Amino acid sequence: MKKIYLAAALPLTLCMNQAIAEEEVQDMSDPLAVYTQGGIGFTNKGVNLKVGATYTTGVATEMGMNILEVKGFAGDILGWDGSSSRNDSVDSIRYRDFVVDLTNGRGTQLDIAYATSSDANGAAGETGTVSYSMIQALPALGPINFFPLAGAGLMFGNNLNEKGLTNSSGYSVPGTFGVVGMYTKITVTDKIWLNFNPMYMQTFSGSDTFKDYAFGGDDSILTHEFTASYQIQPRFNVRYFANWNEDVDFSDGDHRIEFNYQF
Q: Where is the signal peptide (predicted)?
C-alpha cells in the first residue's frame, strides 16, 4: 500500500519541484500543477480573463497559487448564444486559493464565486458561494488519472429575500452546502488530453426555502464539465470547455475556447 501511495505522489512531487526553478515548465495538463499563468476565453456569454500567480506558503513541502477569473463581459458584442440576457458587463467573478502538498499529492482549495447574472448552473444574480475542499491524486490507471474532491461551503448574496431564500434584506447567508466530485484526466497523446469533472452539491442547513430550492429549484444539483485540450508548445495551450447540469442540456450550457500561457 505504501508503494502505491508513493507512486501516486512521486510524479506530482517531481513536477512541483521543477516549478521552483523558473526555467522549468510545469505540466499544464495536471489538475494539481501550480504555475504563474494568464488566459483568455471566448464564450457564448462573452469574454473571460484569467490570471494566476504562485506563492510560497512558508512550508517547505507545499506550493501555493492564487487564480482570479472575470467572466462574461463584452457579451453583447462577442457572445453568440442569442440570449436576450447577454450584455457587456461582467457576469461573474471567481477567486481560488490553491495549495498542494508535495509529499502526498493532496491539494486544498478555497473557492469564492460571485454571480451578477443567472448562469447555466442555475445561480441567480447577486448570489455567491464560498467553499473549502480537499483534492487527492490517485495512482494512474493506464492513461486515466482520478482526483476526487470533497468539501463544504456556504451561499451568500444580496437581497435574497426577493428570491425567497431568506427573509433578510441586503447581504445575507441563507445556508450551507456540501460538495463532492471528481477531476478526471484522460491522456490521448503527449499533447492531447480530455477532462470530465462531475460535481454534486447538496444543501446542509439554513432557511427552509434554501434547503429545498437553493440549486435551480431543488435541494441538490449535479454539474458537469468536459474539456478537450491541445498543448501547442510547452508553455501554451488551447482548450475547449463545456459546462452543463442535470437541469440544463449540453447544448444550452456554457461553451468556451480558452487560450492559456504559462509564464
A: 1-21
Nearest-angstrom CA–CA distance, 107 and 126: 29
Q: Are 198 and 169 contacting, i.e. CB atoms less than 8 angstroms apart?
A: no
pLDDT in tens, 158-204: 878 766 677 767 888 999 999 999 999 999 999 999 999 999 999 99
Residue 52 CA to residue 216 CA, distance in Å, equals: 30
Q: Could you tell me the three cell numbers for 77?
A: 458584442
User: The dihedral of CA 261, 239, 134, 234: what is its sign?
Assistant: negative
**Strand spans (E) along 102-253:** 106-115, 127-136, 144-158, 171-187, 192-196, 199-206, 220-233, 236-245
Domains present along the chain, CATH in parentheses? 2-262 (2.40.160.40)
Q: Is the dihedral of CA 26, 31, 37, 40 positive or negative?
A: positive
In terms of Cβ atoms closer than 10 Å to its own Cβ (0-12, 13-18, 19+), residue 240 is middle
